[in-house]
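Dear U.,

For the methods section draft, I wanted the exact inputs and outputs in one place so we can describe them consistently. I've listed the two proteins in the order they'll appear in the manuscript figures. Please don't edit the token lines directly; just add comments below if something needs changing.

First protein:
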Amino acid sequence: MDTEKVSHISTSGKELMEEDEDRRNSRKSEVNMEGSQIPEITVEKIERIFNFRINEAAMKELRYPWWDTLIVKLLGRRISLLALIRRLEAMWGKMDSIKVIDLGNDFFIVKFYSQEDLDFALTEGPWKILNHYLSIRFWQPDFNPLEATIDKIAAWIRLPGLAIEYYEENMLKKIGDVIGCTLKVDTNTADKSREKFARLCVELDLTAPLISQYAIHGVKYKVEYEGIHNIYFSCGLVGHEKSNCPKTILEISEGIEVRVTEKEKEGVEKIEKTTTVDRVRESNPDISKKEKGKQVIEERNEAYEPWMLVQRSTHGRKGTKGDNTTGGSGGIEKGANGKG
């Protein structure tokens, strides 16, 4: 089984718990303030469009069942509703059952019938399923799965090669805060019982390039990421490929599609072209003369390389169908360089 503790979308477990308490208090006050207002939904036609108007009492009535629910999405991998239900029940359904509803666009809403189970889901993460992080957020009014994005995620990182004297909590948190926002230190690391690498849980900003290296007194150290997939190594961002990298700009020049980096727009002579360029060059040998002085390259930033990604080891594991879920914060993983 391959379900692993790991993640939420924007805040730590403690902050989610505080948010949960605030939401419950707010909901209680709303119920007390309703008074004698009668729920009412009216319909009017405005410029050939039927518009629904919902008064405050009716809106509270509609939203009440969803305040203690979570919206989840598996980062970088699709999963069926039935498969997700099985894994979430194994992870979170300790005291009572849970209900999972497919919202579309790979977002799901999870309804808990036990406050203890909800608290467990909020505090015992981060979570992973099939070696992919599970993002978690509270349900929000008017949530639109077609427009929602995942901007932050809690993830485990490894600091290989770090000298043992730096396995001190304050030092590790300072390193983690450079990479993201430190949420917690792995128990084995805190106890100094695992010396191959230090392990931290940090909140990552997925809208910014990942931090791949840091230095102590000028000596460089690498950062490895567990459960992170689909990194475009030219820009260090998560969740896209070269064809739709936000750091490049698609331009048309003499009928040729050219993907230009932001640096090129500033005058740096590095141009990355799509396969359209190759097709045009093959059909027109003279094209090379027109492009004289331009360098067509596969842009790659040396700061971002495959060694950043921790890969799961399949050594000694049987490929049994259904063996896709494990508990805990570990799992057998190794760095892309084979160590770990």
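Second protein (the one for the lower panel):
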Amino acid sequence: MEFIFNKFDEYVVILDIQGKIIFCNDKLLNRLGYINKEITGFYISKIMINSDSTINDILSKELDLEEKLSFESKTNEIVYADSKICTTDFKGKKVIFIISKEIDQKKYTMEHLEMVLDNIEHCAFIKDTQGKYLYANKAYTKITGCDRNEIIGSYDINHWEKRLSDGYARTDKEVLECKKAKLFNELTNVNGDDLWYESYKAPIYNKDGTPKCVVGMVRNINLEKTVKEELYKNYNQITSLSNLNENKEQFTDMYKLLNNIGHKVLNGLGADGLSILIYDKEKNGFVPYIKLKESVKSLEKIDIIPFDYKLMKESINKKEWEGLKRKDDHLKYSPVKDMIKLEDVEYIGSYYIKLRNEILGNISISYKKGNMPQSNRDDFMKSICNKIAMIIKNCRLSEEVRIENSKRMTTEKELELYLNVAVDLIAVIGNDGYFKKVSSSWIDVLGWSEEELLTSHYRKFIHPDDYEIVMKAKANRKNADEIFRLDVRYMCKDGSYVWLDWSSKYIEKEDLFISTARDITQQKIIEEQKRKLEETVQLESIKNEFFANISHEFKTPLNIILGTMQLTKRNIEKNRVNIDSLSKHTNIIKQNSYRLLRLVNNLIDISRIDIGFYNLQKSNQNIINVIEEITLSVAYYVENKKINLIFDTDIEELIVSCDPDKIERVLLNLLSNAIKYTPEYGTINVNISHDKENVIVSVKDTGTGIPKEKIDIIFDRFGQANSMLCRRCEGSGIGLSLVKSILEMHGGNIQASSELGNGSEFVFNIPIKVLDEEVTVNSDYDNKEYLIEKCHIEFSDIYS
């Protein structure tokens, strides 16, 4: 049975009821490129690409079916076939028979193809790999001047001069070697004229991959190329800046260019008339600009063709008035309405000149009766309109630029005159740091010549200490509109410097700075003299205040001592001395002696610090113990003042390198101040904390506080928060200055924070450092009596 199926002209496939292939005849196998074992036993979907629903219908329905099936070859070629499907018994089993006849896709003949090719305006040909013509259409025979039989079997050298035929052979070889279709612009000589053609050539290969032939399509592009060359030839002339300053009429160059283009288009299309209309928005109509041949008649004595711009845009959107049409197909109300009136005109082409959405004009061509257009060249005409639109726009812009340029030159002359007479220094500086333009004032002030300024970077002239200031000012400007001002020293040619008050604004579009400057050297000298005078006056004032304060500090305890001694002497003379009064008077003398000693010690220490003879005797100490002992030593004074003293620490032991005597001096001074300014039942907190690098000590009170404006001066020499020398709390004003100096010698520092009426807090830190070798220092620090004596001295100006 299989033998019989193999003799069928139709394709035969037998499937089991699951859809697996049992048999394919040789005709189908050969057509699909398979051998029997490659598909037998596989599902039908291996060679059939119909939808799943179609395949399911074949397998599920036992009725006879007729379907159009699609088979896929081994090389992925699709084979379409009309098929009959039935279910029957075969070799004792129920099977599905599919008998198919391939649908002939080629309903056309070679004659049909040649008829199509002979009726197109483009040239078509086929050559073998040696360049011998196998086919040429009617259009190709026209440009060679030979009939088809003469061309077939001939070579390029038989029809073209050697220069041209060698070029054609070279491009044929190129497409065969690269195995890709290519587009070439080739020059051809027809009847003695050089014409440009666009050639599309593609290689054709045999099934074994060997080259078979070259097919080509040739299109005449001579008109497009010559018009394009005319446009580019004149483009630079129209838009060049050299013409902008000349006093010419607006469309002089444009008229010559459009007239040349018009003639090229007219001759290239074989038309009888051509006009180019320019739309004038002010006059709301088209102005006849170029009139050639028959268009001269239709536009004779017409200065304007009224036309509503809005109506025109609507018509463009509807595509009512564009393209090549018979005269009667154009609307009566259109830019070509005057051409429609001519009786001998049969075809009219109307095309808008527009750039983006702006309508600039119209090109119209006309054909008389008997001169039928060879082909519809609407696409070509629209491309010409696009190029002409650019020319018109450029000409108009050039005229506007010429006018603006003229205004600019006038403004520049006025500005130049202003720069020459201006007293201020004026400059234009590029973002690269070089002067672009300078006024004559620069030369007068700095002494540099204009050439020296314009060829040098401004860094050359700026004082080295001021250059970074200039760079930061440039970098920190918030926006392009911001004007930044600064005072900068500029070097004169003689090496001296002058101060310039500088103002600059960055012009982002031009990438440059517009700057002005005033010579303020004399002003700076006066300001410096004034500053020195103010400093001298202030220093003198401080000295006077200090000496007044010091004299008071000395005189008060001395007066008390002398007064007490006189009182004691009188009591002795009158024999009224008793132990209680004598003890009281002795204590008064002792306390005021401590006050004098404290003042003298502070003055000596300040002087020693100033001349560098104040030395620290550091040793490794438990700073927690040092601070705690000092704090507890003032308990007596705190109790007498009815003040709560609280000591707290976050660590019990911390060894640091310090001078315990000097640390005691620091803490006693801070506690003394706290006691002075804290009222009864107030609180003083001494707190110790630490971090990785420092031990931090805080002395905080609930006293009267310090005004914010005085916080910055309390650590200054002789500075006091109370400038009225309030006698409530005595003091010379040098204690905190000494405290700050001692802490800085330890590598630490001190800060104060306060709010008037809510107390103050002084926080100081000492670096956590330990001496590598233990240093033995003779100190009376561990002597309790010594500590008490120190407290008496430090608190000598605190009265109960």
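Candidate sentences for the figure legend, describing the second protein: The mean pLDDT is 82. Residues 429 and 435 are 4 Å apart (CA to CA).

Thanks,
Y.
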